[in-house]
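#help-structures
NK: newbie question, is this the right format to request a structure? protein is Nitrate reductase maturation protein NarM
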Amino acid sequence: MHPDALLFFEQDFWPTLDCMPMGVRYKLDLCATKVSLRHWQLLATAEREELIALACENGEQVDRYRERLGALARQYDFALVPIDPDPAPWQAEVPRLAMEAPLWRAMNPFERFVCLKAQASSKHAELLPRVLALLKERYPIPAGRPGGEAR
């Protein structure tokens, strides 16, 4: 499965980037910052694409991402809203939603983040089951053991 298959629900807005992609929302959480959709839409398409492409996986990259966000916020005259990311629920050892623990442990932090956001979606109740089905294809859990645990 292609890694982007998990984000099937974003395909409609990718050509224009009018909505904030899940990958950017994840990076914002890593930076402990929130940007409103209205402010996202102020950014030029090239700047949106830059934020999508900019790495944000370790402390130094998070700092650079945060600095770039700050520069854009100053340029477009909007405030970055701080959020409390600790503890980030996608980093928990056990799932905070109904799923097999081995599947949760197999997922990377971004996949966990997508599941938690899908669960929180009040508009799209079918989203989490579809995301979980894709993840079960990606990470098959051995059957026949309690909780899907392999020995």
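mod (FA): yep, format's fine, and the tokens are attached above. The longest strand covers residues 33-34.
NK: thank you!
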